[in-house]
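Bit of a strange request maybe. I'm writing a small parser for structure token strings and I need a real example to test against, not something I typed by hand. Could someone generate the tokens for this chain?
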Amino acid sequence: MQNSDYKWKCVGDGFHSNSHKMIFLLFPQVHACPAKMLRLQLTKLSDTSVKNLQQNLGKTYRRYCSKAEKVAEPIPGIAYEKLTVGVPRELFKNEKRIALSPAATALLTKKGFNVAVEENAGLEAKFMNEEYAASGASLVSRDKAFASDIVLKVRAPATDEISLLKDRANLISFLYPAQNKALIDELAKKNLTVFAMDAIPRVSRAQVFDALSSMANIAGYKAVVEAANHFGRFFTGWCFFRFR
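Reply from user aminoacidic:
Good idea to test on real output. This should exercise your parser:
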């Protein structure tokens, strides 16, 4: 932006050194910055002081709106509507969880993602096919779910499941890389980008991604419930509150 983009209008008794001056600084409309008008009452200032003030205000405005003046550049990458998130059924013994609930599916489809859920993948978690369909997901075969751009799983993929993943895809799952080096090597052969949910740092900024703690909390709760079912007596230490 050049200095000519600013319009100055001085009203009052003129620009004499001993006069009272009123200066209006008119800012034009520049991209995201709205048009602004700044009115200053100047008393007994020299012409040189007025010019210096004009220059300083112009520099301040340009610095404040420098980001807005830049032309928006296209963001590199693939648009959400061109990406597919696949959710296959978990086949691990006694595993009843699923990587994506219907409520979370609705959030992804609202942002533009295409969500492909394997048919009957959520039955063990009490999520019906109709719920996923109502959330905007497509019910697909197992092979098509694994062939997605981003695959979500609870358990690490088995050997026969790795072959179903397409090259250079993305996998988000519990992997425990330090304990499953052979698995990581097989995934690397397909040039996959893999996010191990169990390896996300447990810091305040990453609490929303801390699936490991939430699963451990559920496991601890369920362990007490199961223990109570097999215990021969009632648990002691109950406390009741009385209200008046």
